[in-house]
């Protein structure tokens, strides 16, 4: 997995031994990876993995993409409802800002 449960917990400032929400955090981690790959139109691989030769657009997980994924994971964790009384704004230095340079837009 590109994001570990431990990384997600640390980013969300949860205690490592807090396991009551591990299943939702695991789901969030998988969803974040899928969302990132879908946005980028690229498959992500761990740094130590070899990108298959038939995957011309494959990309190793860079630090900035990983940070973007953790930002998205913490957003999903902290905002679990579809509506809020507070005004929500997209953070310009958030997910899109970090992953945009790697995006492939098919024509």
From TrEMBL:
Q: Name one Pfam family in it.
A: Phage_connect_1
Which InterPro entries does this UniProt record tie to the protein? Phage_gp6-like_head-tail, Phage_HK97_gp6-like
Q: Which NCBIfam families match?
A: put_DNA_pack
- Name the UniProt record assigns to this protein: Uncharacterized phage protein (Possible DNA packaging)
Species whose genome carries this gene:
Serratia symbiotica str. Tucson
